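Hi there,

I know you've been waiting on this one. I reran it after we fixed the sequence typo, so this is the corrected version. Both the input and the resulting structure follow.
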Amino acid sequence: MTEETLYRHQIKVGSRQLELASDNFVGDSVLSEDYEEQLRESQARLQKLQAEQQELERLARDLEELNAQKKIFFSSQVEISEKLSNAVTLMDRELLAMRTELHELEQCRHLFDNRLKKIAKYDPETWTRENLKANLDKAITAIDEASDEYEEAARHFSTMRSGEIFGTSKRRSPLVRSMDHSEFLAQLKNGFAFNLPIVSIAVIAMIIYLIR
């Protein structure tokens, strides 16, 4: 083999080695790029899973907070509902008692006003000796009835606000006040049956003084 032929052969072998080396480099590069792509995809999936996990944890915390608030709402709802219901019931009773008291007070005022007018008509100085006794009997009866009515009204209204009018205010429950309602109204309509001894003695003393 001549030197030229040997040289050409060496060049071919070298070229072939370069081609093989180049092919190996390209292959390794492709494999490296595939691995890096898979790695990036895996990292992206991991980040997505972590984000989903964080979102689930946040939703769980929100749900737990909502459940706690719901429990607070139900508890508060029951508590305030009981308070409001009791208050409404008591207000209804109080309003009924106030209306009843107002009605009774109006009747009592009307009765007292009539008594005042009736008593004001009695004037012993205008009576003659002949009708003095009869008129005094009527006057004494009217005064006794008025005194009894006043005392009875004072006792009745002592359980109400109106008791302050008579200086005997001692508040009681609406139930107790309602029990006295019908009895007092009957007494207002029919008059009172008992006389006050002190008033009677005073009037009798006045009669004796005038007869003299």
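Quick highlight: The helical segments are 3-120, 129-157, 163-166, 174-179, 181-190, 197-211.

Best,
R. S.
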